[in-house]
């Protein structure tokens, strides 16, 4: 077996859900070995966490600068090759930039940065480094999302004519209605989260998913966002109209105040011949809708699925796969890229996806602030 790729993680310590998700995903295909990182701003807490998850503490560092200096001093076959950034949003840009400048591969949580300008700088930095860069729009790793992408590319739907994506959560309700809580959570602090909460957190998933599965690019958007309270500086709900071209239009409906909703992410793509619908809370079902025909349900693991879908399927038909598997498929694609092995362009979201996501976030806020007007998304 090939030698495992040495991985370090920034952030994700303690009981962080995203930390658990990335650690499990990285271990899933035996391609990566987690050897250290900076799990917590406090070095002793970071070392304590490393011991809890069974990692030697000699490669747990007090900060990113110490990590880079120590790892760069090692022999090439011993040093960390790829770093996952799981920190709050405002740290993504400075950390990713330093890592790229020192020729590390990077796996970064979304949103890519806190501003579109930072995202463009990061893109130029990557071009100079030739490092692999992945942005973890996690849901692109689901087998039936990948099947959806391939069916659309193969023309099963015909010409696309309507796209409708909903992403509803209710988690911020206990925070937003309490003046003290909403003033003291990093999610609603522009200095730490950027200019958007809801669009920046889950709306960007919807934006990326649309372009991933449809093969189309969103050209213009018109956003109507909701802040709910005058003292709240960041959106927590919004409806965004989309234009792909003169005759192809769509909508993103996104909310974190949809009371009682958990993680209701639904993607519907309608063409002249058929439609496809996928729901994140039931990810193993892809619904095919055709005029005059009964609805068909496609499931993972069957021979009728595409090569890309089957490559992301780890269990026989009838055995549910979930979000850990989805993230694991992204890590598997990154491993292939790092090893310079052939891989499908749909295996992991790239720097370009992250940059377009930041463009979308800023343009959505701009559209709202200017009175709900159409704004172009830069190419």
Automatic annotation (TrEMBL):
Segments forming domain GFO/IDH/MocA-like oxidoreductase: 145-276
GO molecular function per UniProt: nucleotide binding
InterPro entries in alphabetical order: Gfo/Idh/MocA-like_OxRdtase_N (IPR000683), Gfo/Idh/MocA_oxidoreduct (IPR051317), GFO_IDH_MocA-like_dom (IPR055170), NAD(P)-bd_dom_sf (IPR036291)
Residue span(s) of domain Gfo/Idh/MocA-like oxidoreductase N-terminal: 19-137
A Pfam match: GFO_IDH_MocA
PANTHER family: CONSERVED EXPRESSED OXIDOREDUCTASE (EUROFUNG), OXIDOREDUCTASE
Name of the featured protein: Gfo/Idh/MocA family oxidoreductase
């Amino acid at each position: 077996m090939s030698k495992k790729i040495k991985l370090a993680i920034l952030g994700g310590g303690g009981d962080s859900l995203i930390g658990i998700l990335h650690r499990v995903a990285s271990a899933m295909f035996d391609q990566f070995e987690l050897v250290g990182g900076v799990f917590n701003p406090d070095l002793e807490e970071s070392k304590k966490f490393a011991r809890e998850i069974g990692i030697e503490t000699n490669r747990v560092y007090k900060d990113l600068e110490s990590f880079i200096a120590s790892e760069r001093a090692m022999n090439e076959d011993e040093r960390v090759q790829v770093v996952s950034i799981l920190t709050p949003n405002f740290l993504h840009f400075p950390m990713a930039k330093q890592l790229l400048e020192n020729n590390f591969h990077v796996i970064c949580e979304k949103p890519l940065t806190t501003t579109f300008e930072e995202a463009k700088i990061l893109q130029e930095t990557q071009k100079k480094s030739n490092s692999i860069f992945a942005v973890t729009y996690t849901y692109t790793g689901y087998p039936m999302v990948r099947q959806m992408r391939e069916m659309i590319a193969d023309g099963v739907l015909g010409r696309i004519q309507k796209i409708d994506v909903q992403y509803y959560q209710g988690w911020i309700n206990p925070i937003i209605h309490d003046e003290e809580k909403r003033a003291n959570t990093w999610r609603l602090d522009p200095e730490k989260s950027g200019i958007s909460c809801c669009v920046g957190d889950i709306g960007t998933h919807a934006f990326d998913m649309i372009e991933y599965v449809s093969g189309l690019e969103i050209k213009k958007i018109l956003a109507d966002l909701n802040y709910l309270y005058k003292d709240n500086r960041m959106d927590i709900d919004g409806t965004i109209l989309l234009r792909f071209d003169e005759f192809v239009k769509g909508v993103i409906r996104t909310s974190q105040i949809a009371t009682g909703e958990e993680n209701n992410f639904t993607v519907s793509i309608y063409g002249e011949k058929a439609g496809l619908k996928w729901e994140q809370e039931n990810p193993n079902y892809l619904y095919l809708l055709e005029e005059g025909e009964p609805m068909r349900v496609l499931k993972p693991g069957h021979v009728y699925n595409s090569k890309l879908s089957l490559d992301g399927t780890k269990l026989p038909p009838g055995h549910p796969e979930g979000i850990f598997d989805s993230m694991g498929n992204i890590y598997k694609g990154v491993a292939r890229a790092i090893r310079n092995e052939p891989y499908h362009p749909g295996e992991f979201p790239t720097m370009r996806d992250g940059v377009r996501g930041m463009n979308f976030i800023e343009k959505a806020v701009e559209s709202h602030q200017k009175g709900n007007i159409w704004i172009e998304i830069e190419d």
